[in-house]
Amino acid sequence: MISTVIESEIQPHLFSVQSIYQCDGPEFDQFRYAYEERIVLFRASSFEDAIAQAEHEAEGYGKRNATKPLDYFMAYQLDDEDLPGGIEVFSLIRDSNLEDREYLERHYDTGNERARSHDE
Predict the structure, then answer these.
(1) CB contact at 8 A, 104 and 36
(2) For burial by CB atoms within 10 Å, which of 5, 28, 107, 117 has the most?
(3) How many CB atoms lie within 10 A of CB 76?
(4) In the prediction, which pLDDT does 92 show?
């Protein structure tokens, strides 16, 4: 028996997507910037779809919170499909004097990560 899968019948998977934002540092602090790391859940049909949703959500979050989303999104497909999508599950803000690219290379994109890029 041959079966055909119709795209609308494909159940989306649950992904967590990590994103990084640059904020102006507090005026009373010695740091030039603050960087926020967030992890948000998305329902998506693929890693690429999850990243696209995260990029869209990041633009709105950045505007609402006066932060700049950086070009860094890492997705992980979760096994537990009962969790709701579109909610933030983690946030961390770190103060730093590093510019955005330098910050990402120092803390997140060192070249030693065991991860695939979404372009692969």
Answers:
(1) no
(2) 107
(3) 13
(4) 83
The residues that bridge with 59 in the sheet, in sequence order, are none
Quote the pLDDT of residue 8. Answer: 44
Helices (H), the chain: 47-65, 100-107
| H-run or E-run covering 42 | strand 33-44
Which of these, 4, 14, 83, lies nearest to 42 by C-alpha position?
A: 14
How far is 69 from 57, CA to CA, in rounded Å? 10
Report the pLDDT value the prediction gives residue 44, as an integer from 0 to 100: 92
Below-50 pLDDT ranges, the chain: 1-8
Helix (H) or strand (E) holding 90: strand 88-96
Query: Among candidates 52, 83, 55, 72, which has minimal Cα distance to 115?
Result: 72
The per-residue pLDDT for range 12-31, each reduced to its tens digit, is 888 999 999 998 766 656 77
